[in-house]
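[agent] plan:
  1. take the single chain provided in the ticket
  2. run structure prediction with default settings
  3. attach structure tokens to the ticket
  4. add a short note for the reviewer (M.T.)
[agent] executing step 1
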Amino acid sequence: MRTFIGGHQVVSDTDFIELALGTPVELWLGVEGESEMERAARLDAARDILADNPDMPDDVSRVAAEAIEMFAPELFNVVPLTAPKAARRRPRRNGVAA
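[agent] step 2 finished; step 3 output follows
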């Protein structure tokens, strides 16, 4: 089965992320061995993209949550924790027996 996003075929997880974000992953995560000047230029480009697309962080969070829910639904199965039995002691009675 083939997956397409906006007419582009997705062949790897990285392709899926890049097509969903609309930018290369390296722009946000950096690359090993980049110089300080390369890092500054990358971060400057990232700031420009975020300034032009203020909803992008929310969109990325939504896409990530949907992917987690689709592929790992057990992560969203929340079970309330009960208090330990020791915390359920009866109150002490201080007084004199009749």
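[agent] step 4 note for reviewer: The radius of gyration is 25 Å.
[agent] ticket updated
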